[in-house]
Inverse folding.
């Protein structure tokens, strides 16, 4: 990328960050708890506003009507939103993950994938549903049948955003031993049965549902049997956003804990003057700075580095999500009893941080996959 | 480490005293052998209660309260009362069923393994009972506990809560070294025939569903440490009202209440403790007040530890069941060594937590304010003496001033500083260790189960929400760490300052 293009992109990026920050402060800050169970029907309105603000097209190619920014740009926006309302950030993340699957398939057949995209993000403009909490290893795929068409039968457990989306990007397999494929499903089709939104620990705004499919027609995305390739590409692209979401939670948590500690009076002084409190704040601050450096390093090499076997973005997502769980739990402790109450933001952050840990699959499995790749490479 | 180092006195290095951490050795010959049977009976009772009462309702109650924070699980409380659970551990001499109080801990572990929130609707009541007992005002204790038993027996659950925390004084009010500078606001002013109370209390476990409230407040809010007073406030007293119910992350079934006192008159007969009641004792009002608030944590904190252990166990159990059922790429998850190691860690955590709270339980039986109940002669006498004998012959004695004074002398003056130090440190250690383990096991279970662990219907997400509160109430775990340091490490290190 030449210098002027680089400057232009940086400016564009900054503009999106500002947009995300202002959107978060204006539309989310005061309403965070209204997006949670049992009030979460109010989410639909804010999702619509996010769509109108262009937050659902960050990682889309320009010729598809998106902003054409890369996944690291998306990560910055997810981080800004995540610092205020991680549930909303999870909505952006889930939609972006589904888009990345379509975009990954577009390498082979761009025209068809663009038409699928246009269909999926049609008139009602709701984000796409996707199983963003699980990796393909963890789930059983619906069976695909039909000659020349694709009819799906089976279950789609834990479909994030399934409670509000019209379309879903979902995996299915015609024959188990030949790999899985991704399909676009219209969730309003006959044969689609959705559960009530699952009550989850965190990300309650992101309304996940369990879905049963009976002879549901679907559009194949990309090549049949290439689902794992698309998933890996998406994992590589979106892991940086998963890490950024956790980082956003940590930053929100630190800010609230710091402000509270500076104001809360116990033991004859503000509690920030107690060294035990300072140490906890220091640990969270250090974790945030380490996570920031880590993500910044990944973002700066994102365009140029050839994908390594041991993708650092995946490592960052695993590690930073773990840090965020610890930080958010300590964030509750720093506020004492108040931290446990819904009057403050820490209890939600603790729940969201734990939910974020499951983005794109079980952390244990992600770790095993990670080391598998490293060992494979060493053997070669 | 130096656990077997010879006990020395005046050693200036931090102690790893054998007896600071191991009480079972002494307990096995000093405590009545019968307590083992009682533990089994309490556990059996808890398992039956879990199957017949808790399991069918706990998830619905949790969700109901998410939907309507005003909902109170009064039906559960009525059921628990029908099972006799609000009088089971009240000593016979006070009219209760007289079950060995140490068996409450394994009982709490068992029921907390299903729902810590509902379990705390029983645990919080016994916290209230132990706070009332820590006043060492045997006349008032006897009257209130007998009224509790009488109401419960009539089918009206009669719970006791502890009302202590204030909006601006959480840690401050419960830590003796911090109390002198606490910004407390609940004041009891002496008036003819009693006290007039003004102020408010927050985060009071089971407040809205309790009948009695052990109110800890102050005659002079500028000198809280010197003027601490404990009053028994009953629902319906003029000037006492309930405020809002906190919206908590977990343990939703156990309401956290605001209690408001506006010119609330509390008659003299309901003064459990005040500095004016120390006639005949060689102790200042400040010393006695500090005794009162340090007597009950060694009894209540192992209870919190047992709740933590119950949750830790449930999380471990959920992870095992999940891993045994879950297939990853056709292979059973439980056959992976990394999973087996993670489960082994969780299992070990449960065993360590249980061992720790039981050590604290033994120490409570040997050295705390309930130790008399475990003196073998008194224990068996109480066990085999019919309740009516206590009612007719023993209860009237509790009204005698001399008995009251003797009882207070025993607890305020004849308790060794060494025992007190030991108990305080062990209570703190048990509380923060078992509850940290609870949170750690929940986190491990959810990690292992991935997104499935975050579903409400899987149970583990509720366990984590519930467990987190354990790290906060009865002193944050950070404060309890400092208490452990103060009582077991710094006590023989001159020059080391704590809470300064």
């Amino acid at each position: 990328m030449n210098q002027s293009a680089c400057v232009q992109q940086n400016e564009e990026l900054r503009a999106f960050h500002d947009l995300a920050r202002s959107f978060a402060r204006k539309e989310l800050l005061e309403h965070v708890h209204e997006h949670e169970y049992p009030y979460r029907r109010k989410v639909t309105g804010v999702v619509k506003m996010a769509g109108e603000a262009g937050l659902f097209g960050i990682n889309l190619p320009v010729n598809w009507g998106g902003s054409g920014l890369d996944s690291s740009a998306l990560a910055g926006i997810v981080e800004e939103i995540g610092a205020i309302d991680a549930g909303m950030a999870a909505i952006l993340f889930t939609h972006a993950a589904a888009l990345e699957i379509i975009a990954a398939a577009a390498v082979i057949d761009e025209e068809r994938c663009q038409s699928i995209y246009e269909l999926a993000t049609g008139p009602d403009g709701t984000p796409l549903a996707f199983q963003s909490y699980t990796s393909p290893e963890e789930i059983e795929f619906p069976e695909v049948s039909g000659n020349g068409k694709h009819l799906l039968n089976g279950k789609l457990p834990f479909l994030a955003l399934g409670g509000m989306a019209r379309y879903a990007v979902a995996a299915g397999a015609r024959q188990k031993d030949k790999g899985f494929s991704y399909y676009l499903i219209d969730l309003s089709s006959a044969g689609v049965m959705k559960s009530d939104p699952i009550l989850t620990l965190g990300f309650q705004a992101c309304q996940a549902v369990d879905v049963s499919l009976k002879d549901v027609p679907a559009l194949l995305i990309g090549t049949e049997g290439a689902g794992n390739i698309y998933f890996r590409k998406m994992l590589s692209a979106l892991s940086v956003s998963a890490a950024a979401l956790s980082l956003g939670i940590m930053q929100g948590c630190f800010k609230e804990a710091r402000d509270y500690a500076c104001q809360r009076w116990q033991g004859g002084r503000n509690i920030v003057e107690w060294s035990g409190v300072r140490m906890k704040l220091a640990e969270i601050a250090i974790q945030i700075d380490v996570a920031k450096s880590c993500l910044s390093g990944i973002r700066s090499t994102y365009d140029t580095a050839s994908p390594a076997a041991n993708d650092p973005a995946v490592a960052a997502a695993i590690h930073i999500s773990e840090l965020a769980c610890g930080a958010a739990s300590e964030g509750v402790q720093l506020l004492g009893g108040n931290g446990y109450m819904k009057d403050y933001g820490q209890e939600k952050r603790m729940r969201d941080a734990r939910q974020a840990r499951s983005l794109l699959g079980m952390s244990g499995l992600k770790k095993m996959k990670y080391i598998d790749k490293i060992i494979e490479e060493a053997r070669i | 480490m130096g656990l077997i180092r010879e006990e020395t006195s005046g050693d200036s290095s931090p102690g790893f005293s054998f007896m600071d951490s191991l009480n079972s050795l002494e307990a096995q010959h000093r405590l009545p052998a019968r307590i083992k049977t009682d533990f089994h009976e309490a556990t059996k009772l808890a398992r039956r209660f879990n199957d017949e009462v808790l399991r069918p309702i706990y998830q619905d109650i949790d969700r109901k309260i998410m939907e309507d924070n005003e909902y109170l699980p009064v039906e559960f409380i009525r059921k628990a009362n029908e099972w006799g659970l609000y009088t089971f551990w009240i000593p016979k001499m006070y009219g209760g069923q007289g079950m060995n109080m140490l068996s409450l801990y394994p009982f709490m572990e068992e029921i907390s393994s299903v729902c810590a929130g509902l379990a705390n609707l029983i645990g919080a009541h016994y916290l209230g009972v132990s706070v009332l007992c820590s006043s060492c005002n045997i006349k008032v204790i006897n009257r209130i506990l007998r009224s509790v038993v009488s109401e419960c027996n009539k089918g009206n659950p009669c719970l006791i809560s502890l009302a202590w925390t204030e909006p601006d004084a959480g840690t401050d009010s419960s830590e003796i070294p911090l109390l002198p500078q606490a910004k407390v606001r609940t004041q009891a002013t002496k008036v003819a025939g009693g006290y007039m109370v003004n102020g408010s209390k927050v985060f009071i476990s089971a407040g809205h569903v309790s009948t009695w409230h052990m109110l800890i407040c102050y005659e002079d809010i500028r000198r809280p440490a010197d003027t601490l007073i404990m009053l028994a406030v009953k629902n319906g007293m003029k000037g006492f009202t309930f405020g809002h119910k906190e919206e908590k992350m977990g343990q939703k079934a156990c309401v956290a209440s605001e209690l408001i006192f506006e010119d609330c008159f509390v008659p003299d007969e309901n003064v459990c403790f005040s500095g004016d009641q120390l006639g005949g004792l060689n102790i200042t009002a400040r010393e006695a007040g500090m005794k009162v608030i340090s007597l009950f944590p060694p009894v209540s904190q192992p209870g919190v530890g047992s709740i933590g252990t119950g949750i830790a166990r449930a999380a471990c159990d959920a992870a095992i069941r999940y891993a045994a059922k879950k297939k990853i790429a056709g292979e059973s998850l439980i056959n992976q060594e990394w999973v087996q190691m993670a489960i082994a860690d969780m299992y070990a955590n449960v065993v360590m937590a249980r061992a720790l709270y039981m050590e604290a339980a033994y120490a409570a039986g040997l050295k705390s304010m309930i130790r008399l109940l475990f003196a073998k002669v008194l224990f068996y006498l109480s066990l085999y003496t019919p309740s009516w004998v206590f009612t007719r012959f023993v209860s009237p004695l509790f009204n005698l001033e001399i008995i009251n004074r003797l009882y207070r002398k025993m607890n305020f003056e004849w308790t060794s500083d060494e025992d007190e130090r030991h108990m305080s440190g062990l209570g703190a250690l048990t509380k923060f260790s078992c509850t940290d383990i609870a949170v750690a096991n929940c986190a491990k279970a959810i990690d292992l189960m991935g997104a499935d662990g975050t579903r409400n219907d899987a149970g583990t997400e509720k366990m984590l929400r519930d467990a987190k509160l354990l790290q906060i109430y009865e002193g944050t775990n950070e404060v309890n760490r400092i208490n452990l340091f103060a009582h077991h490490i710094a006590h023989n290190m001159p020059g080391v300052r704590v809470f300064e």
